[in-house]
């Protein structure tokens, strides 16, 4: 670890470190430090300002992004919180990491930071190189086609289209479109707009845009008032914990879900709305952190293939290391690669990896103005290099064990409040008896200096950065003990 020089960054003195070892941790405060309850008076004032033009009801506090550092988020009231939620699971290196700051300080990057080309028509040599040297090396094995996009929802939307195009191309044996297909597509009628469906899962979350929303089933508030496709919704396993004591019941649960999936393939085929793709999260995240076994995923892949459908694994929340493997679906030892894997969040840019056959043959079918973001690719490159140099995926696997073991110990002591502790890597969670206790607990934890997030009806989730270390896990455990004592 080598301090290069000191520089001022809007009021805060940071030590710029030439990235070696887990350097950012040495710049962090020693622990949370709270001055006010959350939201504090300054946050509230900003929220009032925001209300003039926006709905501020989801705002928790207003972030002081200049002062936030490493695993610590600082708000505008000067409260220093250990952040185990990290902007909804989207910061792999925490706040103000020197490796990312360097991207913006390097004058060679200036033109890419300044200019945002329409990459579908005018890609730059730098962007073409970034696809090859930044994204391709982390592609899930067997997926060589890369489609950059913007956010998680639009990555899923475009992956759905890629699946429909792939299916239709197979149906017409690769022949040209007919005049009837072209004409009918313009008025949303078959055969040009065919009746085909995508299977998704109860409790799933794949985004809030129009098509993705038909596959999202986590909360009614996301869906209410919006028309949806008639697409099949299958059960996703709901296991009993601890897993090692409930093997028989959980195997039965897999069987129940798989039987229904098989039925739905048949039902939708006979309704003349055949399933052409299945979208699934490796761990249902927004819906409540529900896990499926490796056997469940292997058999789902087999069923999907038997029904000539494509398997799309949505790794928007799980991808880039949080589960202790780079891709969460690597935990499942699938006999072959899934057909498509979507990503966003920790990648800073969205997109999908796919098998070559999902590449449309004609231009403009999977297309939008930007098709990705060169500046974010530079940031991603710095992130991936740091993850590799500092062995952060392995770090996350090991720290995850410390985090989870501590949570299990706490759940023994507070067995009526902390239920079903579970996790892979630091992607950990537990349930509480009901939503109001859960929400109160999260509020009290925040006031005690731990910023964490809810998911589903009763779950609390951990989504720390990959630089989260054992010492941070211990701080979380200590604060949980303090808060639970008084809850
Ligand atoms: C699994 C999954 N898919 C898709 C999305 C949507 O991503 P975005 O909010 O970037 O549109 C999310 C967001 O939380 C997600 O968790």
Automatic annotation (TrEMBL):
Do the record's keywords include Transferase?
Answer: yes
Is Protein biosynthesis among the key words of this record?
Answer: no
Query: Keyword set for this entry?
Result: Aminotransferase, Pyridoxal phosphate, Transferase
- EC nos: 2.6.1.19, 2.6.1.22
Q: Which domain of life is it from?
A: Eukaryota
The Swiss-Prot or TrEMBL record lists the needed cofactor(s) as: pyridoxal 5'-phosphate
GO molecular function annotation: (S)-3-amino-2-methylpropionate transaminase activity; 4-aminobutyrate:2-oxoglutarate transaminase activity; pyridoxal phosphate binding
Per the record, its GO cellular-component terms are:
mitochondrion
GO terms classed as biological process: gamma-aminobutyric acid catabolic process
Return the CDD domains for the record. Answer: OAT_like (cd00610)
State the similarity comment.
Belongs to the class-III pyridoxal-phosphate-dependent aminotransferase family.
Per its record, how is this protein called by name?
A: (S)-3-amino-2-methylpropionate transaminase
Q: Source species, please?
A: Adineta steineri
